[in-house]
Amino acid sequence: MPKKIDTANIILDVATELLKTEGDHGISMRKVATLAQLSLSNVQYYFKNKNTLLTAIADRYLRQCLDDLKQQPSLKHQDELEPFIRSFLTQAHETSDMCRIFKEYWAIASKNPEIQEYIDHYYQEVADTLSEKWRLIALDTSSAQMATAIFLPYFEGYTITVTGLSLDLEIMSQVVSDIVWQYLSGKNT
To answer: With a threshold of 0.70, does the pTM exceed it?
Structure first.
């Protein structure tokens, strides 16, 4: 079994690097096979087609992000909000390579319904999890959902633009926390 896992990871590593350096158009099953020093049929054994491979690349990263979010404790007090948001913004700094690859996924999703469906499902799961994390400090369920609807798109945009922005992380954490709190507390509804 470990050999199967190793081979699948090698394929994913090669395809991820191709996506990072050449974009969606730079990935073909044949090119991945060549660079991974495998036969095309071997690559297709693990990943049926390019969509399956692209989904697996995304899943590898996005599952980790979602698992990290699920492991975060639910917020019980307003003063826990800023550190919680800061941890998200810090993650964007630390994972900027994967964040840049995610730009490709948005572009791919705009013309590929299968990838779009995958991305939509992921965002729904993140939104549900995030709303649940701050449900205890929210005025009500609707307020938690509104705060999520404000924060999640901001965070995704931030992950893409973080390397080009010269904003202080502490200041941005506080500003975003203040905005999110307005929605969680029902002051902006």
So the answer is: yes
